[in-house]
Design goal:
Layout lengths: L2 H20 L16 H6 L9 H8 L7 H9 L3 H8 L11 E2 L10 H7 L6 E2 L5 H12 L1 E7 L8 E6 L10 E7 L8 E6 L4 E7 L22 E8 H8 L2 H23 L3 E5 L4 H8 L6 E12 L3
Antiparallel strand pairs: 1-7, 2-10, 3-4, 5-6, 5-8, 6-7, 8-10, 9-10
Helix pairs in contact: 6-9, 7-9, 8-9
Length: 311
């Protein structure tokens, strides 16, 4: 195809592109009265309607006033003995009774640039077993502890050891916990597990027979999740970082989930697995199976991992 023909075809597409991206510029006072309200209706009625995106309300109110003395005092608490001791003893939050210690992670010998370039969302999976070693690698390189930072306090006898993980987190607070539904993984039973980064172990939260049908967890569209090995659930605990950061804490939680997702995607593809983020999850069904309250702890993202099948 020559350049002239290609440009001609491209020009013919412009009216459709223009219409799609400008159709919501028009204003309407009828947004509240439509029977089926699409998101574009909400944008149309932005000036007249009382119905707005909750995300818009959040963005208008989530900034942090660094000059406000209350914010400075609150942040300062985390540099005092109580705050630092809390950060140094994250392992106290891990209930290790009946937990499963994962194998020591192995190095993944894949070039980072290749991992980034080859990352793709996969929607077709086939039923193959995943090794416990690969599960261990995936969890460790996503959120595991990879270093120790030592802090000496003048008024405390021993050095404090602060664990550093393979993903960043605002203030090192790590308000996002990884849960996952496991299926056809070597040496562990099917069910929902919680990952404990400090001890690099997992704990069964729900057996397969007590879980809801995994197909009810989200609108998976054309994806058959019956063959995937892992469905990751990212759970944000509002209280962990909102005490320090206030309204902006939730934004930091979403950012952390994004970084965890990127790690899962890069590590999964490096290990030869297919992976795909899932946005259309049914929050209350998943939260019930995870046994979280949906008030302080919230499901904020999902990712599936498995062996890629034929399209």
């Amino acid at each position: 195809m020559d350049t002239t023909t290609s440009e001609s075809i491209r020009i013919k597409k412009i009216p459709q592109i223009y219409h799609f991206n400008t159709q919501y510029i028009g204003l309407s006072q009828y947004c509240d009265s439509v029977v089926v309200k699409m998101h574009s209706n909400t944008i149309n009625g932005g000036i007249f309607s009382k119905n707005r995106f909750s995300s818009e309300e959040y963005l208008l109110n989530f900034s942090m006033n660094n000059k406000y003395v209350g914010n400075r005092m609150t942040a300062g608490e985390f540099y005092q003995s109580g705050g630092l001791l809390t950060l140094s003893e994250k392992s106290l939050g891990e209930d290790l009774e009946n937990s499963i210690k994962l194998p020591k992670p192995k190095k993944i010998r894949v070039n980072l640039s290749d991992a980034i370039i080859n990352r793709r969302s996969v929607r077709c999976y086939k039923d193959e077993k995943m090794s416990l070693q690969n599960l261990s690698n995936l969890l460790f390189y996503t959120q595991g502890v990879s270093a120790i930072d030592k802090v000496k306090l003048d008024y405390y006898e021993d050095e404090l050891k602060l664990t550093l993980r393979n993903t960043s987190s605002g203030g090192g607070l790590y308000p996002v916990t990884l849960y996952f539904s496991a299926r056809n993984i070597d040496k562990i039973e099917d069910g929902i597990y919680e990952y404990y980064p400090e001890s690099h172990s997992i704990k069964l939260v729900a057996k397969r027979e007590t879980m809801s049908d995994v197909n009810s967890y989200a609108d998976f569209a054309m994806i058959d999740v019956s063959n995937v090995n892992l469905i990751f659930f990212y759970v944000y605990n509002l209280l962990v970082n909102s005490r320090k950061y206030g309204n902006i804490g939730a934004a930091f939680g979403f950012l952390e989930a994004g970084q965890l997702s990127q790690n899962i995607q890069l590590v999964s593809s490096s290990l030869g697995y297919g992976v795909c983020d899932i946005g259309g999850y049914v929050k209350h069904i998943v939260e019930k199976d995870l046994n979280i309250d949906g008030l302080n702890k919230h499901l904020i993202h999902m990712t599936i991992v498995g062996t890629e099948g034929e399209k």
